[in-house]
Amino acid sequence: MFDGIYEIECNLTRFPMPVAFSRRSQFLFLFAASITALLAIEHVVVQSLVFVRQPRTVAFGITFDIVVGIPVLYWLLIVRPLRINPLTLIAALLFSITIASLLLPPGYQQFVRPAQYVLMLVEAVLLIIALRQFMKIIQAYRLLSSERSDFIANFEEAMTNVLGKMAVMSVLVTEISTLYYAFSWDKRIEAKPGQTIYTTYRRTGISAILIMLFVVTIIEAAAVHLVIARWSPATAWILSALSAYTALLIASYARSLPKRPVLVDSQHIHLRVGLFWRATTHRLNVETIRLVHWNSSLDAHTLNAAKPLMTEPNLLLVLKEPVEVVGLYGIRRKVSRLAIYIDEPEAFIAQMSS
Questions:
Q1: Alpha-carbon distance 30 to 74, whole Å?
Q2: Distance in angstroms (rounded) separating the CA atoms of residues 97 and 69
Q3: CB neighbour class for 321 (10 Å; exposed up to 12, middle 13-18, buried from 19)
Q4: From 163's CA, which of 127, 223, 226, 323 has a CA 20 to 30 Å away?
């Protein structure tokens, strides 16, 4: 059976289908079709007289086909040709055990239990590996923190160094950073000795606005929960969870603003707006800096980094070479013109001109 599948895999690779049906889609379709055919056959066998006559023997065969067959198919058609992380085989094994338990009658699931024990052992090994990786991330983070004072950038780089680039890396970094700034009692400003600090929140009123939004969100969540719970408790709890997450994000953003000011040292400018934006560029890369007002000298090629502060920008930085500005959830923009707000723009211009 699997030799035939391997031949199909080779043929698909050798004679690719049209561009509209990509190589990835080919293997996903073949995997889905193979799983569907396998489960359809096993379902027919369970309902047949063969199962009635020899239930234990047939139950063993069905368990073997599903618990072993699905992971093998996943390896041949998904992991190997598409270069998917082999650890995802654990999910395929869990899926196959669940399907076997649902397909077999309650009295004939004894052959599934050994596979469940194997899965528990694999999960224990993975937990140990995860703990070791976590310790490596902490060590890498501490090393980076000794050179640079930026929790988000250091944590993202530490995770990338240990785990490699992952599609969900930016989401993980944002969520962990949100929890860190919301619950951390460390009030120290993220800055190194010799760096000049420029705040971005004291003269904007953003702190008062965020406190008001936080209180309104909590009150609204409680009121909506009480009303919706009369008709649908599940919906009420879902809405309450969303409101709680919104309140958490507001609190985290409010606490990140004092800890993440704009920094200037002898060589670099570190532009930061709480959780929302961060960028670093060399001082020599700044072509001009000038005071601006709302809609003054702002165009489609200018990133207005003052929006999260709910105020107008008061400085426009024109750069010689574009820099990458990183935002929430890995949003990235290459810009050569950056509008920002700083509480003391004149002092910033004076230092940059010196």
A1: 10
A2: 11
A3: exposed
A4: 323
Q: What is the pLDDT of residues 283-317, one digit of tens each?
A: 999 999 999 876 555 676 789 999 999 999 999 99
Contact 343, 203 (CB under 8 A): yes
Tell me the pLDDT tens digit for each residue of 117-174.
877 887 788 888 889 989 999 999 999 999 889 999 999 999 999 888 877 888 999 9
1-20 pLDDT, tens digit per residue, is 444 444 444 554 454 444 44
Contact by Cβ (8 Å): 108, 87: no
Model pTM score = 0.72
Alpha-carbon gap, residue 63 to 60, rounded angstroms: 5
In whole angstroms, give the CA distance from residue 162 to residue 132: 10
3-state secondary structure of 105: coil
The CA-based diameter of the chain, rounded to the nearest angstrom, is: 92
Q: Which residues pair with 8 in a beta bridge?
A: none
Specify the residue for token string 């949003």.
331
- The pair of structure tokens assigned to 235 is 């919906």
Domain boundaries, the chain: 2-111, 125-183, 202-257, 262-353
Query: Which residue is listed with tokens 């890369």?
Result: 285
**Could you tell me which residues come within 8 angstroms of residue 152 by beta carbon, excluding any fewer than 6 positions away?**
173, 177, 275, 278
The number of helices, as runs of H, and strands, as runs of E, in the chain is 12, 8
Query: Which 8-state DSSP code applies to residue 293?
Result: -
Q: Given the structure tokens 């700083």, which residue do they identify? A: 342
The CA distance from 81 to 275, in Å, is 39
